Amino acid sequence: MTDWGNDSSSTSLRSSAEAADKESTRSGDFALYYDAHVFCCVNERPPKHRRGCCSGKGSRQLCDYMCRKAMVLGLRRVRINQSGCLNRCELGPTMVIYPEGVWYSYSCEADIDEILRCHVIGGGRVERLLLHPDEGPRH
Amino acid sequence: MTDWGNDSSSTSLRSSAEAADKESTRSGDFALYYDAHVFCCVNERPPKHRRGCCSGKGSRQLCDYMCRKAMVLGLRRVRINQSGCLNRCELGPTMVIYPEGVWYSYSCEADIDEILRCHVIGGGRVERLLLHPDEGPRH
User: Fold this and answer.
1) Distance from the B115 Cα atom to the nearest Cα atom in chain A, whole angstroms
2) Nearest to A81, CA basis, from B94, B57, B18
3) Which of A56, A65, A89, A103 could connect to A51 by a Cys-Cys bridge, CB 3.0–4.6 Å?
4) What phi and psi, each to the nearest 5 degrees, are found at residue B10?
């Protein structure tokens, strides 16, 4: 029988002690495979769905544009991926960039350009496009 | 005209100085939206493609299984997502878990169970399934 841990560890995943333990575990991990790993939600829902969807707001085309642009720029240790529903649909199109875990809402090629230039290449943040943790549905 | 940085910053993205700067920037970021964000590659290629594909090795069904299992376990701040090609096709099915940036190759529901129990809930690593950075194609 698989030991899935007690109820508290299942519903409230990371206590402070667990986080500290995870931090120490992480220090022994391998180097990152990608320096920046971008996931653009391309989830599609039926038209007029109450939550909307990123794909319906052009995310698929903008993700393709970001891929091409990253290639043109020679960003070898950067990966741009499509992803399934990131569940912040009302704020879309959304993307998340790891390992930072920084989220953006974007709507045009100029936004993508700025995210690549400022965040991915420059290591900064595009403040005007940032998503805050309290935006979107509760977990 | 957009300033995309010089050639060296484009081809070799993160120098030590840049990494240090990024680290300091990161400390001011928001809390993570998801404690653990799992991306399972579900890319599909034609049969007999020389690189193979994760979808052809059952990743879509196993990703669905992982979603259901995470829900049953009540892992509210954990997100399991499908993703496009993670480009480590020969080693698939592959998944990556952020913010740690830890990669696994898995092949059955028992592997998924162990990754959820040991890594996602327990904060450890499933050593036997880990992918090392030097496995897969060069960037």
Assistant:
1) 11
2) B94
3) A89
4) -80, -35
Q: Which residues in chain A have their CB less than 8 angstroms from residue B13's CB?
A: 35-36, 75-78, 120-121
Contacts of B136 in chain A (CB under 8 A): 33
Displacement of CA A92 from its chain's centroid (Å): 12
Residue A37 has phi, psi (to 5 degrees) of -125, 110
Q: Which residues contact B44 (CB under 8 A, 6 or more apart)?
A: B53, B55, B56
**Total residues found in chain A within this entry:** 139
Q: What distance in Å separates the CA atoms of residue B120 and residue A13, rounded to the nearest whole number? A: 8
Show residues of chain A in contact with B99, CB under 8 Å: 98-101
Interface predicted TM-score (ipTM) of this complex, two decimals: 0.82
Nearest alpha-carbon partner for A99 in A52, A32, A21: A32
| Distance of alpha carbon B58 from alpha carbon A60, whole angstroms | 24
Task: Extract the tokens encoding A104.
Answer: 């953006």
Beta bridge partners of A102: A97
Segment B54-65, tens digit of pLDDT: 999 999 999 999
Q: How many angstroms separate the Cα of B15 from the Cα of each of A36, A94, B77?
A: 14, 28, 33
Mutation site for B-interface testing, chosen from A21, A24, A81, A134 by largest number of B Cβ within 10 Å = A81
pLDDT by residue (tens digit) across A85-116? 999 999 999 999 999 999 999 999 999 999 99
User: Is residue A118 very low, low, confident or very high in pLDDT (cuts 50, 70, 90)?
Assistant: very high
Residue A42: pLDDT over 50: yes
Q: Which tokens belong to A45? A: 């829902």
- pLDDT at position A69 over 90: yes
